[in-house]
Amino acid sequence: MDSGKTHHHHPQMYYYTYGPHAPALRVSPGDTLVTTTVDALNIDETGREIPRQCRQTSPDTSFKEFNPLTGPYYVEGTEPGDVLVVHIRQILLTRDFVNGGAAFDGGGLAWGISAGLSLGPRTPTPESKAYSWRIDRDQGFGNLELPDSRVGRVKIPLQPHFGCIGVAPAWGQFISSITPAQNGGNMDCVETAAGTTVYLPVFVRGAYLFVGDVHAAQGDGELCGGGLDITAEVTLELDRIPAKRIEWPRMENEEWLMVAASARPLMDAFRLGQVELIRWLEQDYGYDPLDALHLITQVGTTRVGNVVDPQFTVVAKFPKRYLPEGESPSHP
Length: 332
Hints:
By secondary structure, the protein is mainly beta. The protein is 11% helix and 36% strand. The chain has helices spanning 110-114, 266-285, 289-299; strands spanning 6-8, 17-18, 25-27, 32-37, 69-75, 83-93, 97-103, 128-136, 141-146, 152-157, 161-166, 175-176, 180-181, 184-185, 197-201, 209-215, 232-241, 250-252, 256-263, 301-306, 312-319. The strands form four sheets. A nine-stranded mixed β-sheet has the order 1-4-17-6-15-18-19-21-20. Strands 3-5-16-11-14-13 form a six-stranded mixed β-sheet, with no helix packed on it. Strands 7-8-9-10 form a four-stranded antiparallel β-sheet, with no helix packed on it. Strand 8 (128-136) and strand 9 (141-146) form a beta hairpin. Helix 2 (266-285) packs across helix 3. The longest helix has 20 residues, at 266-285. It starts with 5 loop residues before the first strand and ends in a 13-residue tail after the last strand.
């Protein structure tokens, strides 16, 4: 990628939909973008709510005000049918606390509990609980006190990543910031971390890149409906691949080729991700499709990004050590 300009952007407006809104900034392929995000509940790095005048509004409707998005960034020269390349260089957490919660009537267990599936004998518990994590950014750990549990205190490693990264969707749509789709969106994939390159299909001239909902950590599925939502300063390098059709967001890091597909039911997302991964191996690395299918079956792995969003996300992964010898992937 050619070296370009470095843009430092300080957001003045946050959006709750992916779409071709007025660009926050125009950038070019080869440019580096440094910007900031607020957390999923509209709280900034100081612990204050972002002002109403800084939030997307409409005289004709209301929005689900979760996952406020930074952007959009108009990438000069990108056209429908291109691929937007986003190299995630750094996700720097900018706060020392995370406030979260859990409830059985929300998140991934809601249907099961409401359908009468039992958790077994247990003492009465509140319908929901709030949790306050202390974030040790220097050491890279999150710390949580659990006074109602025998464990007392837990300490987990941090894994900063984007909950939301995406572009304007196809066909003139505007998609909610809580929804993942072919344009990316609220995929809640721990793979969208520093060191990963994300490939997004372009549906609208300029691409209109959005980012937000950074998590300090999250397990598979985002089971209770939220990771460790936090604020961050992020550094991205942008590029484009002209006239390269991909159906779903693709990703790669040093170890893996990855596809993030989103659908309901979960099995549909699983199938879509695997098919796109087979197509990638066929088109760019010369695999026979059946050979790719057979090899993925033996060495591939699959993660669940979320089971709580309007569509579920699955990440199909293929180890890069099984690519043709001497080939280092640089595009999807």
